[in-house]
Amino acid sequence: MKNFLLNNVSLDSLTTLFSQAPVALAMLMGKDQVVEIANRQILDLWGKDESVIGLPLLQALPEIEEQEFPNILNGVYNTGVAYKGNNVLAMIEKNGILNECYFDFVYSPIFNNDIITGVSVVATEVTEKVLSEKKLKESEIRFKELMEISDYSTGIYVGEDLIIDFANDQMIKTWGKDKSVIGKTLEEALPELKGQPFIGILQNIFKTGVPYVAQEDKVDLVVDGVLQTYYYNFSYKPLRDANGNIYAIMNVAMNVTELVEARKRAEASEVEYRNLAEAMPQIVWTSSDGKFDYFNRNLLDLLNCAEKEVNEFNFEDIVHPADLHLVKKRWEESIRNSQNFEMEYRIRDSRTGEYIWFLNRATPVTVEGEVVKWIGTSTNIHEFKNLVAQKDTFLGIASHELKTPLTSLKLYAQVLERMLKKTGDEKNAQFAKKMDLQVIKLTSLIGDLLDVTKINSGKIHLNQDVFDFEKLVLETAEELQMSTMHKIEIESEHVGMVFADRERISQVITNLISNAIKYSPEAEKIIIEVTGNNDETVFTVHDFGIGMPEEKKDRVFEQYYRVSGDEQSTFPGLGLGLYIAAQIVERSHGKIWVNSVLGKGSTFSFSLPVVKI
To answer: Is residue 363 within 8 Å of 373, Cβ to Cβ?
Structure first.
């Protein structure tokens, strides 16, 4: 071949061949490496024109003098050993600007009669490829840095052998291992995965390229030397190279073990509570967005319908007509104010058609101030209401029967007192007077019992008329001042006329003043205020007595409820006075309330609408 070229190919033909070659070619001749031949491709790589042909290389490309290429060329020229370079950096001046370029090249010796006469150059510029790879590498480094500080467990597995190329601290912690696992196959690093599906899923992704995403998947891992069960939300996503081939899989995982276990505990608790609710005699339900979320069997029995029909049931149809208006009003108030609902009313049993008394309660569940759910119960109190009615009937009959002998007893005591005084027996006359006072107290208690039975049966009658409220207060206070050592101070303004039962309102005022005196035994005075505006008049009595705790405040107007000192016997009574007072005020279209501080006293108030004349 060598002889053939020497005998059959002229230098011009060889030059033409070089110039038309599709790769960058040059021939550097002699020790000074004179550019003998350089085709267009290599001139473009050098950023020069044909004027460099015939010049020594360092004159043609003076910028490479301090670079490694002259030494490499000299080595090839002197030793005859070719040199191959890949991705080699060269600083080449183009258009007056020094550029960073990268080349793949081959330097080969040129022989003439076995004597080295020069060096041939074959070069390919790979600047774009090298810079792209550098950018990719930098991106991977930045990406790994981000993954390293991520709150999520992250790992990268390279090749179908799933070699761990990267795992951040979170992933290392998740595995219960240390950094020594990096560089190992996933199966070597975590032998406990054998028999679990994850290795197979990862290997399948290399074949299909389809990502895998899991929610709350169970995985068994050896952590702290113990095989433990965890739950993860995780994803496997293939990573592709510039040619679109999968070279690795990225694994991102979040430990949701606590969440899953908490939900399982909640589900177990829910089952337990549902069983408990089913075992209860009460109707139990929860509701959100106006629909039932849950109800026990007792509700189905009452409605006598199928479970799917409950949310379509019109509950207004089974509430007693006499109770319906107040039920709707109270329920709307509870919804509007996000407050507890509690009310006794009658509900028709769909099986029998009978109206049954229930105590109905509902409590709002709030999140950030918004009601998200209601929890309710309905307790059958029909038998209790019947017993209460029987008790009220008995009390009414007994009270009426007691009034006649008490009236006679009072008359006898008064006659006896007068007779003893006439005979000069003052000592026994005082005993007769005390007996008369006790009869008066007993008569008052019987009167309270009669009032309660009338209220409970709806038979209390109010003889309403227009009267001067301030005048009534002054008269009542004046009468009570005669029977107490407490000083009754009055701060009053003319408030106009009210429309109510004068005697009953006097009963309310008397009760509040008497209570103020009774519950402040160590105080010297009580204060009464009468104030008003265009709409209402307000009566207030302040005492400086025992007061009451906040939790008892709202119960003082309940039937038979008493607020006492350390001993119940300290302040005797039936606990009916405030209940009767509250019922009279409410039936007179007024309001009654109390404010109190334990150990400092109480302030009772009630208001009545003003009659506009």
So the answer is: no
Pairwise CA distance, residues 184 & 55, whole Å = 56
CB 287 within 8 A of CB 280: no
Q: Is 520 helix (H, G, I), strand (E, B) or coil?
A: coil
Give the residue carrying structure tokens 């769909």.
350
Alpha helices in 212-343 (DSSP H): 257-279, 297-303, 321-337
Measured between alpha carbons, how far is 212 from 590 in angstroms, rounded to an integer?
Answer: 70
Inter-helix orientation angle 502-518/469-481, to 10°: 40
CA nearest neighbour of 125 among 110, 104, 141: 104
Torsion (CA) 422, 423, 428, 430 in degrees, nearest 10: 20
Of the candidates 546, 528, 454, 520, the one whose C-alpha atom is nearest the C-alpha of residue 490 is 528
Q: Rounded to an integer, what distance in angstroms lies between the CA atom of residue 61 and that of residue 80? A: 23
Instruction: Tell me the CA end-to-end span of the chain in Å, nearest whole number.
Output: 137
At 572 the pLDDT is: 53
CB atoms within 10 A of CB 589: 14
DSSP 319: B
pLDDT of 200 above 90: yes
Give Cα 277 to chain centroid, integer Å.
Answer: 25
Asked if 106 and 129 touch (Cβ cutoff 8 Å), the reply is no
Q: Cα angle at 549 between 538 and 531, to 5 degrees?
A: 10
CA torsion sign, 153 to 154 to 159 to 165?
Answer: negative
- CB 111 within 8 Å of CB 6: no
CA dihedral 71, 72, 76, 82 (to 10 degrees): 170
Instruction: Let me know: does 221 contact 228? Beta carbons within 8 Å.
Output: yes
Q: Is the pLDDT of residue 404 over 80?
A: no
The Cα 385–Cα 519 span in angstroms is 32
Tally Cβ neighbours within 10 Å of residue 190.
Answer: 21
Cα–Cα distance for residue pair 109/571, rounded to 1 Å: 125
- Give yes or no for a contact between 69 and 90, defined as CB atoms under 8 angstroms apart: yes
- Which has more pLDDT, 405 or 71? 71
SS3 assignment, position 66: coil
- The structure tokens listed for 82 are 């070719």
Of 162, 241, 153, the C-alpha closest to 204 is 162
CA distance 69 to 53: 18
- With tokens 């309001």, the residue in question is 591
Average pLDDT, integer, range 157-173? 91
**3-class SS of residue 372:** strand
Mean pLDDT lowest for which of 78-87, 368-377, 427-436?
Answer: 427-436
Structure tokens at 221: 């891992």
Residue among 485, 498, 490, 598 at smallest CA distance from 542: 490
Cβ–Cβ < 8 Å for 102, 89: yes
Angle at 161 between CA 159 and CA 166, to 5 degrees: 65
Beta bridge partners of 311: none
Which tens digits make up the pLDDT trace of 319-361?
999 999 999 999 999 999 999 999 999 999 988 999 999 999 9
Residues 6+ apart with CB under 8 A from 484: 517
For residues 487-498, one letter each, b for 16 or more C-beta atoms within 10 angstroms of the residue's C-beta and e for the rest, the string is ebebebeebbbb
Q: Residues 601, 525: contact at Cβ < 8 Å?
A: no
Summarised one tens digit per residue, pLDDT across range 26-52 is 999 999 999 998 999 999 999 999 999
